[in-house]
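Protocol step 6 of 9: fold each sequence in the batch and record its C-alpha cells directly after the sequence line. For illustration, a two-sequence batch is reproduced in full.

Sequence one:
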Amino acid sequence: MISGALVALVVALIVLLAVAWTRGGAPLVREGFVHGNGYLLRFGLLVVVSFFLAGFAEVLMPHGWVPRMLGHQAGVRGILVATGAGAITPSGPFVAIPLAALMARSGAGTGALVAYVSAWGLIALHRLVAWEIPILGPRLALLRWGVCAALPIVAGLAARALVRS
C-alpha cells in the first residue's frame, strides 16, 4: 500500500527536479542526484538499522508492559515514566520515532506518547552532555535544560486532557 506521505515526497521530488532542470539543465539535475546519493549512503544504513532495532525492541518487550506502564490507565505515572524514557533515549529520530510508534502499537496512551516524544526532543540527556554543555557551556545548557524539564510533562497532561474531552 502506498502512503500519502510517500506520494507527497515523490511529488516534491518531481517538482524540485523540474525546477533544477529549468535552472541548470542536466548538470544541475545530476548534481542533485549525486548529493541525494551521498545522503542515502550516509544515512540509509542508519535508518535501516534503526527500524531493525525497533523491531527487536517490539518482540523483546515484555507483553503487557507498555499498556500497564504507559497506557491510558497509567495516568500521571505513565506520563512521568514516558518523560524519563524520552530523556534517556540516546539517539536521533531514526530510533526515537520508531520506538514511539512501537509504544503506540503496544498500547501506550496519547499523553505518554506526547510526553516521550517531547522529552526526547527537549531534554535528551545525551544531547545535553555531548553537545550543549561542551558548546554552550554548563550555565546556559543547564539553564535551558532545567527550564524545559517540566514541558514534556505539561504536554503529556495537556494531550491526555484533550483526548479525554
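Sequence two, same batch, same settings:
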Amino acid sequence: MNQISSLEFALIGLLQQRPQSGYDLRKTFATTAMRHYSDSPGSIYPALRRLEARGWIAAQDPTQPADSRRRRVFRLTTAGKEALVARISLPVTREDVIWQGPELMLRFAFMDGNVPRATALRFLEDFERELGSYVEELRGQLEQMRASFPIHTGVLAFQSGIEGMEAQLDWARRARALLGEAGAAPPMQC
C-alpha cells in the first residue's frame, strides 16, 4: 500500500461517508473535533490532488477541470475504500498509543460500515493491551520521580497525563463491552 498521511487518511474516511468538496472538508476540520487537522487550502487541496492521482478519489464530474472555480465534489473510489479498510485494520502498536492517539480514535470512528465488528473488537483489545502496558511503565517512572520530587509541578503534570491515559483505558473497556453485547448486530452504515 502507498504511504498515506494522517490527513489523507482523514480525507478518505470522510469521503467514504459521503461525497464532498474540498470546501466541505475544510469546514469539517474547522468546526468539529477534527480541528487538529489543518483546514488550510494549502494542505487540503494538495492532499486531494495526491489522492486523486493515486486513484483513491474521483471528482463526481470528471469533465470539470481541476483549476475550475466551481467546487469539485469528490467521492471515494473502490481503490480508496480498499486503502481506507487497510489503514483501519492495521494492528494497534505501542508506537501508535504513544504517538498516534488522535489517529487511533479516527480509525475506530471509521470502522462501522467499513469492517466487521470483530475488527473493532480486536482493535479495542489491542488498544487496551498496548496502552495498559505503557501506562504501567509510566506509573513506575512516576514513582521514581516522586521519590526525588514529592511535590513538584512537573510530577503533577506527568500524573495528569497518566490519569488521562487511564481514562482512555476505562473507555476502551466499556466500549469493548458494549460492542461485545451488540455482538451479532450488523454494523451501522456511515
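Proceed to step 7 once all outputs are recorded. Observation for sequence two: The first helix runs from residue 6 to 17.
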